[in-house]
Structure formats: structure tokens, C-alpha cells
Predict the structure.
Amino acid sequence: MKIALLQLLPEISAEKNLEKGLRWCKKAKEAGADIALFPEMWSCGYRLPADPDGIGALAVPYGGMFVRSFGKTAHELEMAVAVTFLESCALRPKNSMCLFDRYGREVLHYSKVHTCDFGEEKYLTAGDDFSVCDLDTAQGIVRVGAMICYDREFPESARILMLQGAEVILVPNACPMEINRLSQLRGRAYENMLAIATANYPSGQPDCNGHSTVFDGVAYLPDAADPRDMCILEAGEEEGMFLADIDLNLLREYRSREVHGNAYRRPESYRLLLSDKIEPPFIRADKRK
């Protein structure tokens, strides 16, 4: 299954980002992609003002022209599209992604759970759940979930998606991707035996540096003496489209025999993870909402 990571510089408006985004979807189809994935909050290029009214003015409606246009294009191109947007809501906007399948049907609508409440995202409404969908591709049905940027830094995000059967996690992103964040993605793929595809903004976008990646989740091959590198794609810093081919048969065979993921978990020992009565001894615990 081929995933096109659209590591693109945003334009100055939602209208311009719509135009540019649709143009690059066509290029992804021409390159043979099954899925086109955008960076985080593509509708506004993750350019958030420092006041809630200004942020609200940038939001676009879920089901409005911006989002629906990508669904229509997915149908026309017979290619899945994962588009991201600042979603208008009754109270405060959300940081959202919609995944349309190759028939233009919406199969996943996800809003970022771990909003960055230490910055402008404190004016957003956080999502409250992680979910997985069956994505109908030319390669067959694939179980797909999503995390958005800061979600990556919480191992529970990927774990919950794995427990729901996710084989591939799509990660729209907007931050500097350096060795530690790349290691997080590698770790999430390794410990859950799934593929993780991340689309970031290129250099030229404030606080971003490209390095979109795909980790395919397969660390060991039966006949190989040494572990393999799960990173099957790491882009440079420049703007462009980067294509990775995930071998789903290899991943599924690997999951059937290896010891990670859900194989030997002991959830009865993890009860503290579900408790809200324990105050962790973190310096910034008082900042949590």
C-alpha cells in the first residue's frame, strides 16, 4: 500500500490551501499512491494567532466546502485522502482530520486528543477518543487509525489504536522532527507492530523542518540474523511529495508470530493508568486540564 506524504508549505488562506492541496492530491494519484496524507491543520497551515477570536475566525466547518472538496477529489481520483483542518465548533475549534476512502466516503473523523495546552492550542477543544476504521483500498481492507502531532508523545495513543486492530497509523504533524521525536515514532511502531506514517511541514514553515517518515513496524525477518531498520522513508527538509510502499502482507505475517503488541500484555497490572486519584509528582502537574 503506497502512502504519499505531502510535505508542503501552506498558502495564505484556506482557499489557497484548498487549491494547492487538490493539486498535490492529483500528483499523488499520478505517482500511484493509495493514500495522500497532509500535515497538521492544513486549512490554515497551523498558523494560529495568540487570541481565541482570531483562531475562531480561521476555522472551517466540518462538512463544509473545504473538507467536502477533498472527499469529492478522493472519489474522482479513486484514492484515499487524509485532510487536516481547524474545525469550527459551537464553543472552541478543534484540530481535526478526515479520512476519505477511494469512493469519497468519510471513514474516519478524528480530533486531536492531546492538544498543546501550553501554547495557542489552549484555545481549542480537545478530542475525547481514538478510533479505527476499515479503509477500502485497491490492496484490500486496511485497519487505519490516526494521531495528530503531540498525540505521538503519549504511548497510550498508539496502544489504544493497536488494541482496536490498527495496522497503520496516520500522523499529521507540525513541529521540528529531531532524533527524539523520530525515536518516539520508531518506538510506537516497534512496540505495537504497526506502520506509522507522519507528514510534517518542510523547512520554511515556522518551527518545522520536514523529515516526514514511515516506519513499517517490522523489526525482524525470519531468515535474517540481525534486526532490520523499520524506517522505510525519511524525507529531507525540502518541500515535496514523498512516497512509501508498506508491505501489508509482510506486516501481517510478522504480527502473527512476534511477541510485541497485544501478545503478552498484563492489563491487570496497569490499573494506575486509569486512575484520576493519584497526583503524579511532576513539576507541571498543576498545568494539566
About this structure: The radius of gyration is 18 Å. The longest strand covers residues 80-88. The longest helix spans residues 14-30. The CA atoms of residues 71 and 105 lie 7 Å apart.
